[in-house]
Design a protein that fits this description.
- It is a single chain.
- With about 600 residues, the protein is mainly β.
- Among the domains are: about 120 residues, no CATH class; about 100 residues, no CATH class; about 60 residues, Thrombin, subunit H (Beta Barrel).
- The strands form 13 sheets. A seven-stranded antiparallel sheet has the order 19-20-21-22-23-24-25, with no helix packed on it. Strands 50-51-52-53-54-55 form a six-stranded antiparallel sheet.
- It is flat.
């Protein structure tokens, strides 16, 4: 069975990219066009940037990782950014079969174009989980279902104010001048109501909330007021255009004040307009501002020290002394800093204290936990992980926020040195070093005295700090690069170690560089492959060689670049080699590679 994954390196001396398998097989030969990764197991090759009208038909092709041609078209497609809010679609530009520009559209990883291309300026947006819109820059909009069916068209002379809504496929459309009426219209073209208003939102029993400037009133399905009450909210411009993008924070209530008889003399009642169309009154004690607290929870400031935590229904679920609190990016926590006699604490979404320590005055969130600063100190020295267990660092050391990978923490001292702390062992586990190159939960790549070294979680230095580069590919495979030699005769040496630091591969070159396959070439699909660039000198001539090495150091493929000077002024060319196959960029005048270069390119250096 073939090894999974593929990548498409961009080569010097070639016009176009090849598709290579993770096993080193040539899946698709370079043929004058670039190959880009799309979704999993999908690649796209296009002649978009080549000149048309030269007798060669334009081409668009889609391949899988095995190099099988899944779809081909003479229509030109250029993939751009992914459509925000969609996991399946890209923004694309389109040409017809004759190479004429058609406009911008959307396409999936299979080359399917479900929507008609648009020539005018504008943008595609997701406005609901099952609706996508084209918004013209000069006005107007077209609404589509995911299968490309147009469900509504809004003229350029009208303003799209809102919709569709979570429970109704209806849209608020207004004239483009202040006194023009607005209407609520469904996707069948039926006008549900028409009146002078600036905004509409669904209410219960098929009714609506209508706004004029800052004042809301509730009407039934026919647009008739259901009571005398008026609700005053945030003042907005006439025909304020709400976002027509898919609202991922749609559960946030709209705050307003109710006047029961529609009179300014009425006692105002503060409350929320909920997404289901209900108005709920808030506690009379909550006179301060509203702020986000947790998903589905909001904090209402009170006149005293205790604030109310309110859910999406306006119900007070808890009270907390939470002034100065901040949320956590990963855990359902709130961080309260010390103030006015109230201690710092970590709270849950119901306001309960999860962790509190008397001498802590400040908490700061990181992805993996919380940093705590003690009274009288300027930098954090306390670590609280996801298990809420505290770890106090030794005096004189401080946590480095950028280098935390539990159970490993990097600490700094006043002299600029760094130290590795293991929370499972509860101590500093290694000799100090200068700086951090990379940190994971299992290892640290560090810099000391000008060289890079590697230590494990228990502090053992498994690779001394003598390297120019250390690149772990997995727990069982680590590549290193260092400069070896003396008296001006220096070379680059790369070495592959296994998990027990046994040497699997060792090679030397005049000079070289190594790294992972770039993501733009599909490197995220082949994480175990090393991309190597090196120079090989023959008779005072340097040949540039690129290689891709497998998890055991075996040479999967090599590319050799022959410059114009090496070819006697005939122009650049290249040769791509693998086990049992060869591709020349110029088969009629192939690159003449010296035997010593070919031998060096094929030597894996495996021990």
């Amino acid at each position: 069975m073939a090894a999974p994954g593929a990548f498409a390196p961009q080569l010097s001396g070639f016009e176009g990219d090849p598709l290579l398998g993770a096993d080193g097989r040539l899946r698709v030969a370079p043929d004058g066009s670039s190959i880009i990764p799309l979704g999993p197991d999908r690649w796209y090759r296009s002649d978009w940037y080549q000149q048309t009208g030269n007798g060669k038909a334009q081409r668009s092709q889609w391949f899988d990782d095995e190099g099988r041609l899944l779809h081909a078209s003479t229509r030109g497609i250029r993939y751009g950014d992914r459509l925000e809010g969609s996991d399946l679609l890209w923004k694309v530009e389109l040409r017809d079969e004759q190479g004429r520009y058609q406009g911008s559209g959307l396409a999936d990883a299979q080359g399917t174009v479900p929507f008609p291309p648009m020539r005018e300026a504008g943008d595609w947006v997701v406005i609901a989980p099952d609706r996508i819109a084209w918004q013209g820059r000069d006005g107007g909009a077209r609404i589509f279902s995911p299968d490309g069916r147009e469900v509504l068209r809004i003229d350029a002379q009208e303003i799209w104010v809102g919709g569709p809504f979570a429970d109704r496929k209806a849209y608020v459309i207004c004239g483009d001048y202040d006194i023009a009426p607005c209407r609520v219209q469904d996707e069948k073209g039926a006008v549900l109501l028409s009146a002078i208003f600036d905004e509409a939102r669904p209410a219960g029993d098929d009714g609506w909330w209508l706004r004029q400037l800052d004042t809301w009133a509730r009407v039934d399905a026919a647009g008739t007021r259901v009571d005398r009450a008026l609700y005053q909210g945030v003042a907005r411009w006439p025909r304020y255009r709400s976002s027509v993008r898919f609202d991922r924070a749609a559960d946030r209530p709209l705050e307003m004040t109710r006047h029961a008889n529609g009179l300014e003399s009425d006692a105002p009642e503060r409350g929320w307009l909920l997404q289901d169309g209900r108005f709920v009154a808030l506690p009379a004690s909550a006179t301060g501002s509203m702020m986000d607290y947790c998903p589905g929870r909001w904090l209402l400031r009170a006149e005293g020290e205790v604030d109310s935590i309110v859910d999406a229904q306006g119900t007070v679920v808890a009270q907390a002394r939470s002034l100065g609190s901040n949320d956590h990016p990963q855990f359902p926590w709130r961080l309260r800093n010390a103030y006015d006699g109230v201690g710092a604490a970590i709270l849950d979404c119901d306001g309960r204290v999860l962790f509190e320590q008397a001498d802590v005055v400040d908490y700061r969130a990181t992805d993996a936990g919380v940093l705590g600063t003690l009274a009288g100190e300027r930098s954090p020295r306390l670590w609280i992980g996801g298990d809420l267990r505290p770890h106090l660092m030794p005096a004189g050391l401080r946590l480095q926020e950028d280098y935390i990978a539990p159970p490993l923490l990097v600490l700094g001292d006043d002299e600029g040195n760094a130290h590795l702390y293991n929370t499972q062992q509860g101590k500093v586990v290694a000799t100090s070093f200068g700086s951090v190159e990379a940190l994971t939960a299992a290892h640290l790549i560090f810099l000391r005295d000008g060289g890079y070294g590697m230590m494990l979680a228990d502090g053992r230095e498994v690779l001394p700090p003598i390297h120019a580069q250390i690149l772990p590919m997995s727990a069982e495979r680590v590549w290193t690069r260092q400069h070896v030699g003396r008296d001006g005769d220096w070379k680059s040496e790369i070495t592959l170690f296994d998990g027990n630091q046994h040497v699997l591969v060792r090679r030397r070159f005049e000079s070289g560089a190594m790294g992972r396959v770039p993501v733009r070439e599909g490197g995220d699909r082949v994480p175990g492959i090393l991309a190597l660039s090196l120079d090989i000198a023959v008779d005072d001539t340097n040949y540039g060689v690129r290689q891709w090495l497998g998890p055991d150091g075996q040479v999967l493929a090599s590319a050799i670049h022959c410059s114009e000077e090496q070819r006697g002024g005939e122009g650049d060319s290249g040769v791509l080699l693998g086990r049992g196959w060869r591709v020349d960029s110029d088969p009629k005048r192939p690159c003449q590679v010296p035997a010593t270069v070919m031998q060096a390119a094929q030597d894996s250096g495996i021990h």
